[in-house]
Amino acid sequence: MTLQAPPNRLNSHGKIRQVGVEIEFAGLPPRDTAMIVRELFGGELNVVSPHRLLVEDTRWGEFGIELDTQYAHPDKSLVDDLHAEDSEWARHQHQRRIEFHQKTRELIGDMVTGLVPTEIVCPPIPWNELEDLDALFEALRKRGAKGTDASLLYGFGLHLNPEAERFDVDYLLAMLRAYLLLAGWLRDEIKVDITREMLPHANPFHKAYALKVLDSRYSPDLDTLIDDYLHHNPTRNRELDMLPLFAYLRPDHSHELLHTQLTKPRPTFHYRLPNAQLSQPGWGSVTEWNRWVEVEKLAANSEVLLARCAKYIADHNRPMLTRVKEKLVRWLRRKR
After folding, report:
1. 239-256 pLDDT, tens per residue?
2. Which helix (H) or strand (E) holds 330?
């Protein structure tokens, strides 16, 4: 599959835009996965704990590999808790508690390996080098990694974190509008797994929010755009999660969702919709990036974007019976 170029290839500093990639899968424990990453991209192995490893100093930076559950990893606040002023006996007791805690977490990790996914968090990668990253997906497939469709229990996903081209409200509003208009098409193209549909991790936006944002009269400043998003989407679990970007842009914002441990401020969109299709030869980050680029293309074409927004609003304002009938006809056609 040929890598598609976005309409805006550079960031606000004139450098090639980057994209972060995260993938979940079963069938390979973290240590074996880390060895694959090092074989492909070089770097040094750093065993943070038995089920959390880093591959540092690769061509792009640091890869993180771990079991995707906090209970398999030592609690950093406990391990880093210093007792320098305590008596020698108290320090010794504290060290024994740490050792017991670490052993317990290691045992939990051993028990749940195979039941919870292994996750790879890649460093930011220039978008025009994603084809090189796809060697990782091919290697995982050959080594027995299992993706979303390998079991009804596997609600695994691939996340993309495309760097924003710029941060003005006109650009961000255009991207939100383009995504809302193409969300249905993306779900059809990806064929989102039924398990992932049932889980809350990549929920669609509610119709009320889409109608608000796609209305041509909606012309917010940046703070209003952020506040409206938080009001209508008080959750991380959206197919396009804007919280990391908004936390980056407004670090002093009072909303608690922008300050949770799971919301990491960064200058990127957090696109959570794709499955982890490791059973499909040739599938990888390029496949999902190319689909994402269609969102960027629509956002960059202001005339077409506004026309499609107007059509969406007009279609919604038609009688409900007419809309239901047309949806039924489209569904029947797809089933033929």
Report:
1. 999 999 999 999 999 999
2. helix 320-335
